[in-house]
User: Which sequence fits this backbone?
């Protein structure tokens, strides 16, 4: 097995027994969700995968070791250690060489999961093109990594703090295959729909598995993004969403927040400005994605 990656016991057993595996990112745990709820959520997400007959593989770097599959103590470290780095793919060699610890974003998680031979990865919402891109040039590294990593990512679209139409254009340019799951519009993360139309839609894990097989047969190197909307009954109230987002963006401008801090800042502000409702919608979206990811992994393994 891979020298640079250490596997958790459950993942090692699943790999050798060909049990379907779902990779889970850790930045959402360390930087995206408030403590101590984040530790509870981390365990809950793993339990959802197991309940569907698949094996969870939460990914992080601990003391310079890239880990695919964390035990209970390691998962707790990711949730509670104060100085976890936020690691995109480009930061992986730095963290490993410095024997540092950090949570992996979508770009780093997709990289390590693919290297570990894991086909499916569930998260909340992808990074993408930030509003005001023409001045800041802030576009998440998630997009470019998906362009060159043949993995299937289940996400509730991209975070609504972003410029969604611009992100969809970039996904097209980068040849990332995008398909709606039981929807004909791109999801809006906290919202069921962003109102941006999608050309393609699938209705079942078996249909997604058929697309994964076709992608493999073609030898494509780009990801498949399964855009899975938060259920309508669990979405954030759209009017509240728009108002809170306006406030959060204004706060970031005023305080000059940028770079790696921007996404965690905006997510936290939204939770604050909605009295916690944004957190509940975020969690509903993530749970929904983790469940679908497990069902897709099971279907793809058949
Ligand atoms: N989705 C969430 N919460 C998060 C993130 C996504 O619900 O915290 C994280 C992911 O790890 C994603 C990262 O890869 O934010 C993107 O950060 P940036 O925009 O700095 O690239
Ligand atoms: Mn950025």
Assistant:
């Amino acid at each position: 097995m891979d020298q640079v990656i250490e596997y958790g016991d459950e993942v090692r057993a699943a790999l050798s027994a060909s049990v379907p595996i779902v990779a889970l990112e850790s930045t959402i745990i360390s930087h995206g969700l408030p403590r101590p709820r984040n530790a509870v959520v981390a365990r809950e997400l793993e339990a959802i995968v197991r309940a569907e007959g698949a094996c969870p593989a939460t990914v992080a770097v601990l003391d310079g070791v890239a880990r695919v599959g964390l035990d209970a103590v390691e998962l707790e470290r990711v949730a509670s250690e104060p100085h976890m780095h936020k690691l995109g793919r480009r930061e992986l060699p730095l963290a490993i060489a410095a024997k540092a610890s950090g949570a992996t974003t979508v770009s780093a998680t997709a990289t390590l999961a693919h290297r570990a031979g894991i086909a499916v990865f569930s998260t909340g919402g992808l990074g993408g093109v930030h509003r005001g891109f023409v001045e800041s040039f802030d576009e998440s590294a998630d997009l470019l990594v998906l362009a060159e990593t043949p993995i299937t990512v289940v996400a509730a679209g991209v975070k609504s703090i972003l410029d969604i139409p611009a992100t969809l254009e970039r996904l097209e340019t980068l040849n990332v295959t995008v398909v709606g799951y039981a929807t004909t519009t791109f999801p809006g993360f906290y919202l069921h729909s962003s109102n941006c139309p999608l050309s393609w839609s699938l209705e079942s894990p078996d249909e997604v598995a058929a697309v994964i097989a076709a992608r493999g047969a073609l030898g494509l190197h780009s990801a498949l993004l399964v855009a899975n909307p938060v259920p309508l009954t669990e979405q954030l109230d759209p009017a509240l969403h728009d108002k809170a987002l306006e406030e959060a963006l204004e706060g970031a401008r005023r305080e000059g927040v940028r770079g790696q801090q921007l996404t965690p800042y905006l997510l936290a502000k939204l939770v604050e400005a909605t009295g916690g409702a944004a957190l509940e919608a975020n969690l509903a979206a993530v749970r929904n994605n983790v469940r679908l990811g497990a069902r897709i992994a099971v279907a793809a393994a058949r």
In short: The chain has two domains: 1-118, 124-302. Residues 25, 27-28, 31-32, 105-106, 123-125, 127, 140-142, 159, 260, 263, 267, 282 surround pseudouridine-5'-monophosphate (ligand 1) (CB under 6 Å).
